């Protein structure tokens, strides 16, 4: 059941991050989920909690996942376009 929640929350976080970074038109639901889940991993590492910090489902983990997704999309913008939006 935890994986289903991770996929749903990852999709929502990835979608919100893609809206903020103006990449929503170029991403589908699959990539929103991937960005949300990978963003959660990046956010946990940036936040100093390590991968074990993902086990807790609280406000901080949602904020960290969102920030991680923004970082991931910012890097993708740099690679694809050579600039940050």
From TrEMBL:
Family note: Belongs to the UPF0410 family.
Organism, scientific name: Qipengyuania benthica
A Pfam family matched in the record: Transgly_assoc
Keywords associated with the record: Cell membrane, Membrane, Transmembrane, Transmembrane helix
Annotated protein name in UniProt: GlsB/YeaQ/YmgE family stress response membrane protein
InterPro entries for this protein: Transgly_assoc
Entry keyword Ribonucleoprotein: no
Residue stretches spanning the membrane: 6-22, 29-51, 57-79
UniProt entry tagged with the keyword Iron: no
Subcellular location: Cell membrane
